[in-house]
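Worked Example 4.2. Consider the chain below.
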Amino acid sequence: MLAVVHIHKTAGTTLAGALKYAFGPRFCAVAAEDPDAPFLSTRDLERLQRRFYPRLDAILGHDVRAYSDLSRDRAVEYVAYMRDPLERCASHYQYDVQRGGVDLPFEEWITHEAVPNRQTRIIGGPGATADDAISLLGRFSFIGVLNRFDEGLVMMRKSLDLPDMRYARKWVAPSDDIKARLLADPASLELLEEANRHDMALWQHVVEEIYPKQLAAHGPDLDAEVRRFRDANAGTTVKWMYRQPRYAGYVAKWRLLYNPWVQRKRRATADSR
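Applying the procedure from the previous section yields the following structure tokens:
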């Protein structure tokens, strides 16, 4: 099973679209039944497979974690895309303001306990250091980097023998002014660096050690393969994606069956406390 660890603001929605096209109803964007659970558990996965996805081959979600128990009774190919930590964090604040209804100054938002070193904590677990996260990267079959998104898709597809992929960008920010301002302001940049020191060390390890090894393993034809992928994907739009049977099949099952069910489970669990 392909299990994509979705780190916030690393093109997860776009990647989910590519997986919907590739796998159709054999893919699911998942969530833990308990909204306070640390990860999607084997029990969660088994229940959604019994009820909705008996032929499930790929999952993606913020609750998918490589330190969970998902690989206890099955072979799991963990994958994640990562991003320059300062850009990711600034983009996350921009998203919270533009789409999340957050009305906090950046200087207050960045002090929230959920903000610092988010990539490190999602990879390595609560309280993880960069060293902890780096030690867990060995469980991943592929690590992509956002600034080389298409290249990563091509490499991941070949190395994991995945179906054909297409995507159309989603959730594009209406403006990048907030992110640009934060990254250009020395005081804000200092706060970003202070809040993401472990993420910066983890990112350095990925771009200097892991990603180059993946490039070398792929072989010399990568540039040509990326060009071919971009040519094939050039005309892909959201409307075109919805007309593809696999994609439409996924959307129907997820929207009408799985998502309402798991959201009811999450509300009932929260209300019982």
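The beta strands are 2-5, 27-29, 58-61, 77-82, 140-145. The chain is about 55% helix and 10% strand. Compare this with Example 4.1 before moving on.
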